Amino acid sequence: MTSPHSTSQRLPIASVLVAIAAGELFHLIMSSVLEVVGDVVPSWLEQLLRILDGAVASGVFLLLVWLVVKLSDPVASPPQPKQFERWMRWGVLGYLAVVVFPSLAVEGIAAVLVHNVLAAMLLGIGVWSATVVLRVVRSYRTARTAVALRSLGWVLLAAVPIRWIEVTVAPGSLEVVYVFQGIVVCVLVTLLARRRRWLGSLSRGQRWSLGWWTSLVLVFSIVAAATLFDSSTVHSRALRQWLTGSELVVGYVCLALAMYSAIALVTIVGSGSSAARKTFEFDAITFFNRLVSEHADSQQLYDTAVTLAVALTESTGAMLLLHEGDRWEIAALAGLDYQRAAALEIQSVLGHSLSTDAIVVPWLFEDERFFRIARSVESYAQSLMLVPLREGSISYGAIVVVSTKPFAFEQGDIAALGAFAPAVTIALANQRLLRSAIERERLRRELMLGREIQKKLLPTAAPILNGWSVAGWSEPALEVGGDYFDYFQLGDGTACIVVADVSGKGISAAFYMAKLKGICLALAPLCRSVHDFIVRIHRALDGGVLESRVYITLAAVGITPSGRVHIVRAGHPPPVGVTSDGQVQVYSPQGIALGMVSTDRFVALTPVLEIEQTHLDTLLLFSDGYLEAGLPTTAELGLDGIRRMIQSHANNCSAEELLQRLKGDLSTMLASTTQHDDITMVIMKRTTNSS
Fold first, then answer.
1. Domain that holds residue 246
2. Do 318 and 335 meet the contact criterion of CB atoms below 8 Å apart?
3. Whether residue 25 is found in the same domain as residue 111
């Protein structure tokens, strides 16, 4: 389906073509009428008809000029060699038709028809020649193209009034002016044809084919120009009868095409094949890949990348931008210093476009994004090209090249830098992976060191505390964890066993675990009971030690010198005990985690539970990691599972032996899953009835 926009673009051209055809038809009718009745009508009527015919012809001429300008509008992609060659073929066919058509030997009205058709054909040749030249030079323009084109247009249009002056005032006296105009046309075309690098990128076959057709157009356009400048030729008379001076305009257009064809032919013949450039591109990519494989350091790779980018694009400067998170930073420069590179403000000007598509800015002065800084950077950057370095959705950076000349970069440069970009992308990806591996190894070493330090913070001996033997074990889910257990002697002689769990896992939890140990060591000699000990710990943590979302669950067991067992549970899983008659008990006094409420509120919500020692034989303290063992692939162990396990193993064994049995059962359970939380167990086993 055709869009409304494209339809609106075609309608003016279609209307102009209809108007031109109507004007040509009117001229044909008027010429025929004057040929038949010119001798019998009054002279004033004949002059009136000729003036009317001239006015219509002038209007058609102006419409043809508009049509040339419209057809030569630059498009998104400049004409390619195949398209240029196709234009040359059509031009050769048109010139041949113009040569053959006047050979028709006719007289009378038929002669008038032949002359009018010949004039139309010559005008068509002029339109085609002007369109070809304008399309190419406007697609491959320079900063001075607009001025040169305006000058050329005025020179061509001036030929019509100059010819009128010569015919009406001084016949045959302005030959020098015509020669001067021809010289000016040649000079202006030479200036307009400065960008010819695209012709140098042709393959051998393209050079031969395009060179052949261009040489034919060169010959035919020279012949056409010479024929039209000769006022005695049938071609010159046909155009002169249509509109005086038009033969000079078309002649100068053919001269312009001949000049451009000559310049193009010299470029095609004189330049080497594109194979040389392709070879250089291949060698550059090969050299860079070899440098990557040799594990060169990052900065050497970055510097080599920008140096090769300058060589591949024949630019004057380049920079390599690295993309890390939301930051873009300059990693390497060639032909620029850091101050000049920063002055381009690439990141702030181009923004998100840096990591999406290739960007070519032909002239910074014409780009609204760079207009603010164009004047300050014109001494070293007038045109710019950027190619992103990305792999899939991952952006690694971008290569930016600049040139001191406007319109410096063409399709070949974009293709060359685009072919080089994947090699740089791979290098940057490897560098990022290497840095990530080094960082992971460093972190692993630090974590292993933290694991060793954390192990040293936990008790290693299995002491006898006021008639109870104790064995403890802790295994973090990661290298370090937040579970903690320890044994303390309080100020009144009470032995205290503490098991705690800091919310979360890893480094943060281990950090608070170490803080907790320091607080416990400092406060233990000052306390007279296990409840007082836990309350003092809470008061110390309530002073801003814990972050707002961090809390600590804790279970503490105090054994007094007289043999009484006191339990304080601060939001922790309840201890499980086995009595002397083999019954399994779960001790669940009230309690809230440390750091959740104020100290006064904590005291009110966390009482102490007292148990007669003679009623208790074994006591197990554990963290929620043991309670939830088996998750997430199977059902959790739970309190019921712990009760069954301790009941089956508690008889006739020491605390250490019971601990090893429970660890064995736990290992069997975890064989088919992954440990997802820190696990801690402390076994207390009564040995005597006194301290």
1. 77-272
2. yes
3. no
More confident residue, 83 or 311: 311
pTM: 0.59
Strand arrangement of the beta sheet that strand 609-611 belongs to: 483-489, 495-502, 552-559, 565-570, 609-611
Domain boundary, last residue among 272, 290, 311: 272
Assess whether 208 and 82 both reside in one domain: yes
Contact between residue 72 and residue 135 where contact means Cβ atoms under 8 Å apart: yes
Question: Which CATH number does the domain housing residue 468 bear?
Answer: 3.60.40.10
C-alpha dist (Å) from residue 659 to 41, 165, 294, 654, 682: 133, 120, 54, 8, 8
**Extended beta strands in 339-434, E state:** 359-361, 383-391, 394-403
If you write DSSP's letter for every residue of 126-149 in order, what string do you get?
A: HHHHHHHHHHHHHHT--TTHHHHH
Say if residue 394 is in the same domain as residue 427: yes
Contact 337, 319 (CB under 8 A): no
Amino acid 400: pLDDT: 92
Q: Which of 132, 137, 275, 268 is nearest to 199 (CA)?
A: 268
125 Cβ contact partners less than 8 Å away, ≥ 6 residues apart: 91, 94, 95, 98, 224, 250, 254
Beta bridge partners of 397: 322, 389
Residues 210 and 262 in one domain: yes
Q: Quick one: 392 exposed, middle or buried, by C-beta within 10 A (0-12, 13-18, 19+)?
A: exposed
Half-sphere exposure of 310 (CA within 13 A, CB side): 17
Structure tokens at 299: 């900065």
The 10s digit of each residue's pLDDT in 461-509 is 778 888 899 999 988 877 777 788 999 999 999 999 999 998 877 777 7
Over the stretch 58-76, which tens digit does the pLDDT of each residue have? 777 777 777 777 766 665 5
613: three-class secondary structure by DSSP: helix
3-state secondary structure of 614: helix
Q: What is the mean pLDDT of residues 627-649?
A: 78
Is the peptide bond prior to 463 cis by the omega test (within 30 degrees of 0)?
no
Distance CA 88, CA 215 (A): 9
Residues 6+ apart with CB under 8 A from 45: none
**Buried (b) or exposed (e) across 335-351, using 16+ Cβ within 10 A?**
bbeeebbeebebbebbe
Please state the φ and ψ torsions of residue 462, each to the nearest 5 degrees. -110, 90
Cα–Cα dist 513/393, whole Å: 41
> Is residue 448 in some structural domain?
no
CA distance 116 to 189: 30
The secondary structure of 543-594, three-state, reads CCCCCCCCCEEEEEEEECCCCCEEEEEEECCCCEEEECCCCEEECCCCCCCE
